[in-house]
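Homework help board

Subject: predicted structure for assignment chain

Our instructor gave us this sequence and asked us to write out the predicted structure in token form, then describe one feature. I got the tokens but I'm not sure how to describe them. Can anyone check?
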Amino acid sequence: MKQQKALTLKTLTKSNVWEVQENDILRMWETAEKDADFKDNRRHFVDVIRSAFEIEEIKIDKPVVIQKYEDRGFTIASLHITDNDSGKYGIKKRPIMRVTDLTYENIRHISAAKLIEVLDRNFGGGWDSLSQSIQDIIESGFDISTTTLPKDRLHKPGGMYEKKVNDGFEVLEITKGAWVEAIFAKEKPEVEKPVAKVDDDDFRDKYDREDDDDEEDDEEDLPDDKYGDDDDDDDTFDEDKLTEESYRTTFDADPEDLNLEAEDVTDDDDNY
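My token output:
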């Protein structure tokens, strides 16, 4: 299991609250009550604690009543959750007994052996009998693999079972007639993603350059002479104003031949 860090009510979250026990909560609460802003944050603290602990107010402060709470596993202490309460509460860590008790917040705060215990208590149909949501929660904190083999082959020397156990996996065996399904579980190592340090000046320079580039792009996207006089643009033309002159065909010819052809055309016109 993970090594506990020095937590306070202010640093407590719905994930790391699963690392602490009842006495830790009471100690944190007693320390936090001395802070000036305690009452302003009290409701938030209670919400975080309730995600992993049961908290019940003891309205009748009698030994027989307190004994009943203690028999149920509650630790009794003064918390003063509100200004009008009796001040005496019972607090108990929520047990993880069934697969439905597993959450993304607590899955990394149990051991592989504890997971196998929970699966064994709730199973019968094998890994595939779990809902996809429960499988996703489990696999967010554990490496899981399964195999189904005949009983006489499961523990074969050098097989998958032996390799997984030697690699540190906990295993749950579920008998299915003459076959056995083996579920292997091993805690995933937590990998902290490196956070790149960004210099503030570099950050500002980067966005200043991007802003300049955006302005240049905006200028390039504008059509040429969008607001200018169309008559100044010799390259533009209106297809609706095209005439037959726009489709002239030019070719190379001797000027003397052209003169002769012109005279022939003149003679023909005279004949008419």
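Reply (TA_rk): Your tokens look well-formed. For the description, you could write something like this. Residues 81 and 229 are 78 Å apart (CA to CA). That's the kind of observation they're looking for.
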